[in-house]
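Re: How this chain folds, sequence and tokenised backbone to follow

Filed under: protein folding, tokenised backbone structure, sequence and structure records.

Contents: The amino acid chain and a row of whole-number tokens, matched residue for residue.

Body of memo: The sequence and its backbone structure tokens, given next.
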Amino acid sequence: MSTDFQTVVRSIRDLPPVPAVATKVLELLGDPNVNYSKLGEAISSDPAVSARLLKVANSAFYSMKRQIKTLDHAIAIVGERTLRSLVLAASLEGMNKSYGLLEKMLWEDSIGCAIGSRILAGKFKSADPEEAFLAGLFRHLGKVVMNYSDAESYRALVEAVYSGEGSYLELEGKYFPYAHAVVGAAVLDKWKFSRTLVMVALHHDDMSISEEDEEEHDGLAPMVATVNMADQVCARLGIGQREPNEEIDVVNCPGAKALELSEEDVQKAIAEVEEVFGDNREFFIG
């Protein structure tokens, strides 16, 4: 698999750089003796990431009781695992050469699925909520990379989908040598992200997790199911899309079926994701 991923990465004409701040923060968080001042120093080196962290830390999504005004306070309040999620999210948002409507939709798609995955993981106890947030965040990294490396082809692909020529999955092979799931998994692998995030990016659509993969990565199948369902919920609600698609049958999507959810469970989950995303949209987007 690694060799295949290396081939995929070599085929990308212009690979986005590894998010420098995220890499440094992850390195620091791996040190059991890390202190908040070092973390604050690393994060403050990127003003955009710093601003996003403070803004999101003050959102209702993280339910803080009082306003957070400084990085040190944010780091102390949100905790290390949430900090990791927020820094990676802020880094992904900045991974664009330009930031027009298409890039904004890609970001909304990513953060929407991250929020949805976190909610579903907590609601159905299907995965660790913070890991689910990251899995949802990066499940379409391949699309971000495609747009970064060949914006003209990616725009043509999106326009073809919207003009009714076929679905995204049907058409992407016409414009790119590899599917977005493979590209995203290959880039996450190159950046040395966890194997779980790599596998979720690779299988979030087809959910084809082998017994060997599941045995090697405990909890992988329910994590993939959680992200698959969150993806479908977002598409139904129009998060990251031009408009909602009420024809999407979330109850019978692969993720919901794998999690063995009832129609009532699914409908309540859709309503919760819609409410939470609506309440927190301005903190994450724009």
The radius of gyration is 18 Å.
